[in-house]
Amino acid sequence: MVNAGDMNGSGNLMDFLDEPFPDVGTYEDFHTIDWLREKSRDTDRHRKITSKSKESIWEFIKSLLDAWSGWVVMLLIGLLAGTLAGVIDLAVDWMTDLKEGVCLSAFWYSHEQCCWTSNETTFDDRDKCPQWQKWSELLVNQSEGASAYILNYFLYIMWALCFAFLAVSLVRVFAPYACGSGIPEIKTILSGFIIRGYLGKWTLLIKTVTLVLVVSSGLSLGKEGPLVHVACCCGNFFSSLFSKYSKNEGKRREVLSAAAAAGVSVAFGAPIGGVLFSLEEVSYYFPLKTLWRSFFAALVAAFTLRSINPFGNSRLVLFYVEYHTPWYMAELFPFILLGVFGGLWGTLFIRCNIAWCRRRKTTRLGKYPVLEVIVITAITAIIAYPNPYTRRSTSELISELFNDCGALESSQLCDYINDPNMTRPVDDIPDRPAGPGVYSAMWQLALALVFKIVITIFTFGMKIPSGLFIPSMAVGAMAGRMVGIGVEQLAYHHHDWIIFRNWCRPGADCVTPGLYAMVGAAACLGGVTRMTVSLVVIMFELTGGLEYIVPLMAAAVTSKWVADAFGKEGIYEAHIHLNGYPFLDVKDEFTHRTLATDVMRPRRGEAPLSVLTQDSMTVEDVETLIKETDYNGFPVVVSKDSERLIGFAQRRELILAIKNARQRQDGVVSNSIVYFTEDPPELPPNSPHPLKLRRILNLSPFTVTDHTPMETVVDIFRKLGLRQCLVTRSGRLLGIITKKDVLRHMAQMANQDPESIMFN
């Protein structure tokens, strides 16, 4: 036996692992983080900083800087997200107008900016000024006639195709992760999954540039979802500058939750809605501290956007509305009907879009993403141009649909027949009979509605940045405006009916069609995303219509109930399942009466569980086990016979530890004994130096007994964010349950394909 002196002499060598080595505690791509370990590492770090801060003034200053680093990161995220959103808004405005014409005095001006600077603009023709020329005027000096129309039509399609081709090419070549809305992946990342590069600098740059291109191309998509992805990329970049966040995946996710709030804040000019969106829809772990920081980040982002003033109306929002009449109880019925429409449209959209995306994944269609984008852009541009409601940008369309008809409105939707004897203040115009402009606008809106419903199904999910908020709101706003005009005309022509008699007298301004558009937009957005509280707050922040909260709430709740009757999944959850991300949704209920023993591995007839023993395996044995299996970690037991559980060792850390030991420690060879105990085992003389790996052993792995109900196990995985859980009986190891096993079991219980969970 080796004498005690020798053992003590080699003890210093063997304990080198008590010092952390590079990459320990990090995770591989497409793996889930261990929330409990990240939390305990942060607590240890905090304890260390607190105890050191009492030693000197410098350490005290360092502890203050550490405490303030979170707020500094939030400030930087808010500033960058707000700036990028402002630049995107200005660029989209200019490039959308570029498809129709150009400003001669300054080509970088949009149509509106060009005519602001003109001294020759009249109020009636405020969209026309000599400085702004359509392409036909510029190229063939004709503004009217068939040839001018065809030339403008052709150039509109060419510009759209050019923008779309450039966008899909940039995404394909430089940043494949910049496609889609990004919210399903952000949700998955916030639940603890690692997707390296998804929030990288290239993704941030390409997503920002291509977002401008695709929105300007006129495709049926919005920039709101992708702006959440852009803000999270900003959050990831700034958190990598501070070791507190870069070395702890759990803390990094707190920053990303706040960044998501800043993204919605600048997308809609809705800081409070952004915080609630992050809490309700995106975040997995949202402590109170993150709530305050999200609020601060959203505030800074909104303030930055307001300073840039991209809409030129000194407001944060594009759709600011001011209605002059209250709503009446009888109107709740059409509002609830719009809620039902929103729920049905949401269900239809999710089912059709997922079926199309699945087809894209499983057929040859998915091999030609560039061709798909070009074809959809061409179809969109060809059908959109003849209809004035689909030709303009979707944001402008929604803005017009939300508007109340004042005396100065020149829109077709406000072409009512006026009473020549009317002597009313300008703001309070009574209900009037619809003129020919309103009837033709209704037809055009009906066609635009059908077109938007169909084309959005094929557009969302292509290999370009694509948001869903604005197209969903457009569908709802068109349906709502048509219902609003219908109710208004009904009230005007039949004011003696019992439902109108109490609140709608002749000559009164009873019904506001713009309000119906707003309620319809909320209903459709709720039907697709299944948001409720954050949706209502975003809508009234977006429009400034604070007194219309009850109609918005009624529509949002109705649309959620109707949509939930057909399936509980919103569009983002559906895309998470389609892509096979390991996401355990907190909202899902598990009601089946299965036990841990039914789910754990190994099952009957399978090979026994791969384990490490505490002091009887050599380095070569451990390396062979790692090579022959692809498990993320191994339980450590006293011996193969007793199978008494000691702890759990992660695969990545075993590999790194052995590699470091071979480089830094003399005498560690293939037949060196690996031990996980405090004291080294007794070894024969002349045997090589043993290798102590106790440092990387998790001595308190989460365990359940074999008779624990799966309902409890699922709850534990959700609430503690576990990667795996060991199953024991009377201290003896029986098996292991991983997050993937839980997801497969839940899929099996729901009669779905358990193999659809692709990632670890």
From TrEMBL:
Q: Is Membrane given among the entry's keywords?
A: yes
Q: Where in the cell is it found?
A: Endosome membrane; Membrane
Name the PROSITE patterns on file.
CBS
- Every copy of the CBS domain together lies at 600-664, 697-755
Which Gene3D superfamilies would you find in this protein's record? 3.10.580.20, 3.90.1280.20, Clc chloride channel
Membrane-spanning ranges: 68-92, 153-175, 195-215, 227-243, 255-279, 332-356, 368-385, 441-461, 468-487, 515-540
Q: Which GO terms describe its cellular component?
A: early endosome; endosome membrane; Golgi apparatus; plasma membrane; synaptic vesicle
Instruction: Could you list this entry's UniProt keywords, alphabetically sorted.
Output: Antiport, ATP-binding, CBS domain, Chloride, Endosome, Ion transport, Membrane, Nucleotide-binding, Repeat, Transmembrane, Transmembrane helix, Transport
Protein family according to the UniProt entry: Belongs to the chloride channel (TC 2.A.49) family.
Q: What is this protein called?
A: Chloride channel protein
